[in-house]
Amino acid sequence: MKSGFAFLDEVTSGIRWDSKYATWDNFTGKPVDGYLANRIVGTRALCTALANAREKAEPLGFGLLLWDGYRPQRAVDSFLRWSTQPDDSRTKRRYHPNLERAEIIDQGYVSRKSGHSRGSTVDLTMYHLDTGELAAMGGEHDLMDSISHHGAPGITAAEARNRETLSSIMASCGFQRYESEWWHYTLRDEPYPNTYFDFPID
Fold this sequence. Notes:
Layout lengths: L4 E3 H4 L4 E2 L23 E3 H14 L4 E7 L4 H10 L6 H7 L5 H6 L14 E8 L28 H16 L2 E4 L2 E7 L15
Parallel strand pairs: 2-4
Antiparallel strand pairs: 1-3, 4-5, 5-7, 6-7
């Protein structure tokens, strides 16, 4: 493990995770380069901020579920290669129904240099503590569509409230949201703002 980084589950408790890019359940349709274990890695600053966010979510009846944290640069490179390949109708329907693969890059859903590779960006949602069910957010993780934008029309009032609740929690813990993806947040004072790491998650 790179100095200054940690597995989230080793430094805090009470946060669920499902590292999507270590599984077949992601927009590429297969595990992604660099994700050798289904665990979440981040800078220690990220882990501390997420522990604070969990504490703020709990009195509101919510827990946190993480989908991604630190992302090796080799994973980003594999996304770029994926963007040049022919479409898979199964993943297109679920993840980018209104966009061609190349447009995903142009519209900022996949970047050539990702904030995730700096170690202080996270993809996450909330779940109900009483039932364990995911909170309704108006679209799944990595749905590359305008409905995923903050303030998007076409979602229910409850979904909009849940997005705003998550946004408020994360802002109060030092995070800045990405306007095109309701699940994506970056620490405002990230410790490595200009460094893109490439060590694997294993």
